[in-house]
Design goal:
The structure holds two protein chains of two kinds. Chain A is of the alpha/beta class. In chain A, about 30% of the residues lie in helices and about 20% in strands. In chain A, the strands form two sheets. Chain A has a seven-stranded parallel sheet with strand order 3-5-2-1-8-9-10, with helices on both faces. A three-stranded antiparallel sheet of chain A has the order 4-7-6. The relative contact order of chain A is 0.21. In chain B, helix 1 packs parallel to helix 3 and helix 3 packs across helix 4.
C-alpha cells in the first residue's frame, strides 16, 4: 500500500514494542483525536510488577480513554487497552479480552506474538498490526499471522528506531505493507477509517 | 494455527471418552495451547491427533498436562502476601482453628508460601490447608515440597518484599539443584484432586485462594466456580483471586466487600 492511502474497515490497531518503543508512543499518542470506530491495544515488554505505572504514564499522554485490562474486559471502539504485566493478552470471539499466565514466549510475558496471533484470528482483515523499536525477535511471528489472515502490517523504520533489531527482524521475515518513520506513522494511524 | 472446528472436535472427543469438559474454557487460550502440543508432538493431520487422544489414555494425560497451565511461583505478587500477612492473618488468628482451601494449586509453590506466613504468624499449628488441583501429576509434585534451587534467589526476593523477616534459606535444604522445603510446613497440608468444572463444595473454609485459575474459564464457568466458593465460605470468610481477576461480573458480588484495592473479598451476607 502507499503511505497516503487510507486504511478503512479497521476495528483494532495492535501496537507491539520493546526497548525504545515507549518513547515512540509518548510522541505519537498525544497527536491522536478520539478514535470512535476502532480500539488501540498496546503490548509492550514491561517490568514484571503489579502496579499500573505504564497505564498511568500513557493515560497522561492521550485524550483517548484508557481502560485497565482485567480478565474478560470488554473490548470497545474508542478506547486504549494495555496488556498487563506478567500476563499474555488474548482476544476472544465475543469481544472479551482474556489473560493467560502460561510460559513466557520469546522470554516475554506479555508476548507480542501471542497477542498478535490471537487478534489476527478474531479480527482478520480488520486488524492493523504495528511493530515498534526493540531488541528481540518478538512480534515477527505475530505479524506473519496478521498478514496471512488479511490484516495490515506496519513496521517502524529501523533507522528511525532506538533499537533497530526487532523491526529489522520483522521486515526480513514478513512482507510489510509499510515501513514508516514515527511522523509518517502518526499521519497514517490518525487517518484510519476516515 | 488449528481451526476452531478442530478444537470443538477435540473438546467433544475428550468429553465423550474421558468425561472431562473443556467446553467452558476460554477459547483463545485453550486453542493456543492445543495448537502448541499438536505441533510439539509432530502431528501433521488433526484426525491423527484426535485418534491418538481417543485411543491412548496415557497420551490423553500428557495432552492435558500440556494444555492446563501450571506456571506458578512462591510469593507471586509479593505485595498481596504482605497484605495477607498484616491484615488478614490477624483476623483469622482469633479463631480456634483455621481452614484454608487453595484451589488450583498446581505444583504447590503458593501453598508453601501460605504455610510460611502462617508459621511466622504463629498460626500454623492450628491451621489446615486443603490444596487441590484437577491435575494428579502436579499434586504429586506439590506433596514433595521440592522446587528448583535456581528459583530460590527470586523467591527469597519476593519473600523480602512480602515483608518476611527471617532468613528464607532456613525453610529448605539445598541438595543437587533442588530445594526441599521443611516437613514442618507440609504437615499441615492435605492434597487432593478436585475439579472446579464438575465437583461440588466439600467443606467450609475461613479463607479460599484461587489465583490465576478463573482466567482460563469463560464467564459461565467462572460463575459456577464462584458459586462453589460461596457455598464453601461462611459469613465473614475471605475469597482471594489473582491480580487481574474479579467478581464484579458475578451475581454474587453484592454479598461481598472488597478489601481495599486488593483482590481479596470478604463475605458479608
Amino acid at each position: 500500500m502507499e503511505k497516503d492511502e487510507v486504511i478503512s474497515n479497521c476495528k483494532v490497531v495492535a501496537i507491539g514494542g520493546s526497548a525504545g518503543s515507549l518513547k515512540v508512543l509518548m510522541h505519537i499518542l498525544p497527536l491522536f483525536q478520539t478514535i470512535p470506530t476502532y480500539a488501540i491495544v498496546i503490548i509492550l515488554h514491561r517490568k514484571n510488577t503489579e502496579d499500573n505505572t505504564l497505564e498511568e504514564l500513557i493515560a497522561l499522554k492521550t485524550i483517548i480513554p484508557l481502560k485497565i485490562v482485567e480478565d474478560k474486559t470488554l473490548l470497545e471502539a474508542g478506547h486504549i487497552y494495555i496488556a498487563p504485566s506478567d500476563y499474555h493478552l488474548l482476544f476472544e470471539k465475543n469481544m472479551l479480552l482474556s489473560l493467560d499466565v502460561s510460559k513466557k514466549v520469546n522470554h516475554s510475558r506479555p508476548s507480542i506474538d501471542v497477542s498478535f496471533e490471537s487478534a489476527a484470528e478474531v479480527f482478520k482483515s480488520s486488524l492493523v498490526g504495528v511493530l515498534l523499536s526493540g531488541s528481540n525477535t518478538d512480534g515477527t511471528v505475530g505479524l506473519q499471522a496478521i498478514q496471512k489472515l488479511g490484516g495490515k502490517v506496519i513496521i517502524q523504520n529501523p533507522s528511525n528506531a532506538e533499537m533497530s533489531f526487532m523491526p529489522e527482524h520483522a521486515i526480513k521475515n514478513t512482507n510489510p505493507d509499510l515501513i514508516l518513520d514515527t511522523d509518517e506513522m502518526v499521519a497514517l494511524l490518525t487517518s484510519i477509517n476516515k | 494455527m488449528i481451526e476452531d472446528i478442530e478444537l470443538e472436535m477435540l473438546i467433544n472427543v475428550v468429553y465423550e471418552y474421558y468425561g472431562f469438559d473443556f467446553g467452558s474454557y476460554s477459547k483463545a487460550s485453550l486453542k493456543r495451547r492445543v495448537d502448541r502440543v499438536y505441533h510439539l508432538d509432530g502431528f501433521r493431520n488433526f484426525h491423527d491427533f484426535l485418534a491418538k487422544v481417543r485411543s491412548d489414555a496415557e497420551y490423553y494425560k500428557r495432552m492435558v498436562e500440556e494444555i492446563t497451565v501450571n506456571v506458578t511461583e512462591m510469593f507471586r505478587d509479593p505485595l498481596f502476601y504482605s497484605v495477607l500477612r498484616k491484615e488478614i492473618l490477624p483476623i483469622l488468628g482469633t479463631k480456634p482453628f483455621i481452614r484454608i482451601w487453595h484451589a488450583g494449586c498446581a505444583t504447590g509453590e503458593e501453598v508453601y508460601s501460605i504455610a510460611i506466613l502462617l508459621k511466622e504468624a504463629n498460626l500454623l499449628h492450628k491451621s489446615l490447608i486443603y490444596a487441590t488441583d484437577i491435575n494428579e501429576l502436579v499434586l504429586n509434585s506439590a506433596k514433595k515440597g521440592v522446587f528448583p534451587l535456581r528459583m530460590m534467589k527470586q523467591y527469597s526476593e519476593n519473600y523480602l518484599v512480602s515483608e518476611g523477616k527471617e532468613d528464607f534459606s532456613t525453610y529448605y535444604t539445598a541438595n543437587y539443584g533442588i530445594a526441599k522445603f521443611n516437613e514442618e510446613l507440609s504437615e499441615k497440608m492435605v492434597f487432593s484432586q478436585h475439579n472446579l468444572v464438575s465437583d461440588s463444595s466439600f467443606n467450609e473454609f475461613d479463607l479460599i485462594l484461587c489465583r490465576n485459575v478463573l482466567i482460563y474459564f469463560d464467564k459461565d464457568l467462572q460463575e459456577r466456580a464462584l458459586q462453589l466458593f460461596d457455598d464453601s465460605l461462611p459469613k465473614l470468610g475471605f475469597l482471594v483471586l489473582g491480580a487481574k481477576e474479579t467478581i464484579k461480573y458475578s451475581e454474587l458480588k453484592s454479598k461481598y466487600v472488597q478489601f481495599e484495592k486488593e483482590k481479596i473479598w470478604r463475605k458479608m451476607k
